[in-house]
Specification:
Layout (H helix, E strand, L loop, with lengths): L2 H20 L4 H11 L3 E5 L3 H12 L5 E5 L6 H14 L4 E3 L5 H8 L3 H4 L1 H17 L4 E3 L16 E4 L4 E4 L7 H10 L53 H7 L9
Parallel strand pairs: 1-2, 1-4, 2-3, 4-6
Antiparallel strand pairs: 5-6
Helix pairs in contact: 3-8, 7-9
The chain binds iron/sulfur cluster.
Amino acid sequence: MDHVSESMATEISELQRLGVVLAGRPPHEILARAVERFPLLAFATGFGVEGCALIDVIARHQLRIDLFTLDTGLLFPETLDLWRRLEERYGVTIRAVRSDRSVPDQAAKFGDRLWERAPDLCCSMRKVAPLKGALASFDAWVSAIRRDQTRERSSTSVVEWDEKFGLVKVSPLAHWSSADVWSHVRSNDVPFNPLHERGYPSIGCLPCTSPVFPGEDPRAGRWRGLERKECGIHSRSERSQLTSLRKERPSDVRVG
Ligand code: SF4
């Protein structure tokens, strides 16, 4: 084992130990410990109800965590309004991280409505690559994912090495249920997206999100009709979204 891989192995085993120590602890304790251990810590929120709950926890406990969101240029008006309401309510700034390529620029290069023909490429340009750039200056990032949301997320640890982005990932809500999140939001009067009460349990970009019918999976409305239920940010699959971006040719990208 060379020096680099040895130090990486040591770091990963330290993260595993920290994950065990913090497993099941309240989110504010997990975040407070993460701030101590990883001073350059960022929270990337997509303004889902879990993200709103975490912003409440971060603000309530005055935790020094940078807040930002991936503004794809294709968000619902209700999401943009929620962004403003959260900033006002908690007196925080949630920075916008955007793709270098505007939506019109993307249409000019790849044709209109790329998300219908090559969502992998569209998500790569509008979400995954901007997130990678934004995380480059941090030690660790916070995610609001929960284990019971998707099969891909079921093995999420509270603290783990994020191979895709090359830094530590902290998921303080990994062990929470949807009911836990809503209980926190309701009891603390946390602002949330009104679309959740109109049949949208999971909300992403406007063109790729539809309401779900009773009995459907909560993420059934994301990329409806396609197998994909993740934008690539939390995916552990070998098929890297960043590889899609390098190709920059929608005809080469397998959809779904
Ligand atoms: Fe594009 Fe849809 Fe991904 Fe948004 S969710 S970046 S519109 S493919």
